[in-house]
Amino acid sequence: MARSGQPRVLLxxxxxxxxxxxxxxxxxxxxxxxxxxxxxxxxxxVEEEDPDxxxxxxxxxxxxxxxxxxxxxxxxxxxxxPIIMLSARAEEVDRIRGLETxxxxxxxxxxxxxxxxxxxxxxxxxxxxxxxxxVLEHEDIRLDPESHRVYRGDKVLKLGPTEFKLLVTLMERxxxxxxxxxxxxxxxxxxxxxxxxxxxxxxxRLRKSLxxxxxxxxxxxxxxxxxxxx
Amino acid sequence: MARSGQPRVLLxxxxxxxxxxxxxxxxxxxxxxxxxxxxxxxxxxVEEEDPDxxxxxxxxxxxxxxxxxxxxxxxxxxxxxPIIMLSARAEEVDRIRGLETxxxxxxxxxxxxxxxxxxxxxxxxxxxxxxxxxVLEHEDIRLDPESHRVYRGDKVLKLGPTEFKLLVTLMERxxxxxxxxxxxxxxxxxxxxxxxxxxxxxxxRLRKSLxxxxxxxxxxxxxxxxxxxx
DNA sequence: CAGGGCTGTTACACTTCTGTCGCATAGGCT
DNA sequence: AGCCTATGCGACAGAAGTGTAACAGCCCTG
Lengths: 230, 230
Description:
The structure is a homodimer.
Chain A: E1 8-12, H1 16-28, E2 32-36, H2 39-49, E3 53-57, H3 65-74, H4 76-79, E4 83-87, H5 92-100, E5 105-108, H6 113-132, E6 136-138, E7 141-144, E8 149-152, E9 155-157, H7 161-172, H8 180-188, H9 197-210, E10 219-222, E11 226-229
Parallel strand pairs in A: 1-2, 1-3, 3-4, 4-5
Antiparallel strand pairs in A: 6-7, 7-8, 8-9, 10-11
Helix pairs in contact in A: 2-3, 7-8, 7-9
The structure holds a DNA duplex.
């Protein structure tokens, strides 16, 4: 099912203050947030809200996070929902157990809110395009996120990993201008510190790749602002 | 309110040397910096300057950074301003997080200035993403902030960055007369030292660009007052 | 461990934009 | 009309933004 609009997140955390801060940040990030403070409610809300992603505290009264996770990953209809586990303990044992229960990612408290946001987005990105099965198209460029292939006309293009992510980002909103900072954010990840000029270089490489069999340059440079497709 | 120009940062740090270094770097990075060396002044300056982001030292005389943060996050009108907390040691970050002051990010001293800049920019981006998907229109001129494109009739116009920002400003309130000083403020940014006559020149350039395919002059000169659209 | 592909940075050339000046012209006032 | 000030506009040097090649480091794979 291809859904648009705000991605829905189910936030399960028993500590009210932490939950509030996280909810605030998630909402600022563009998520529609549903909150639960225990595992039982969480199980119900998964049904009702059908979230795109779940952020789950490990330690909770009644039904623990790990138990919620295990149950959800057992049921076929909820298995596909990415789960990020929050844990207070850093021991490797926990990490392994968390992943064994099927959590898709794992963040240790105290975490950087930014990091958590980045991971949530990454999970979402991972699940969304493929479940949607959408092929992105713009003019004569076709991009299949599932097979990781890019076509121009009837030719298959060869792109590097960064070029690919860059193109995905641009193609998700053709025409929109992305600043170098936004692109760093979306393509490289928000907690990576890379010179903004690097974006230029990769855009250059992407251009070259897109035109490897000829054709016009589909990437528009907006001086003083950034880059856009078309 | 859609603001353009330099992002404003309120830097609150009681140690003069550190404050100076940071202010210097922030300014070099394009921020308009307001400084405070204690929490009380900070609270006042938040009102007066309405900053886009606050960088806040944790340890300070009188009102501590934590307290400032807590107060600001409590009030709806200031809650949206991102706050980056500076803390002296890693363990303290835990405590700050434990206190749930609601800071948006934390940076541990000694920090890399580069990192702090990156985080500040990231926060700014998070809050001020883009002027919503609205297309500004006035008579036969259409301006799409997202794609950074300007049309007159069915022709795409080519504008320079300053001309574009100038036009955005004028189109946000068609008919309103903006003084040269206001335009400098809105388009160039707060404390940029530029001759007011420069506005004339850019208005001239904007006029030329808007009429590059013919058409009437949509910009009205109000002698002794400024410029307006229509 | 050598080779290849990819990445991030840097340097340089090139283009476009910017701010200021000087002078022409228009508008308003007495 | 005559005067004075505000505005328009072309020119220009310097600044800023951008494209690209070159390079060194990294992580693979064979």
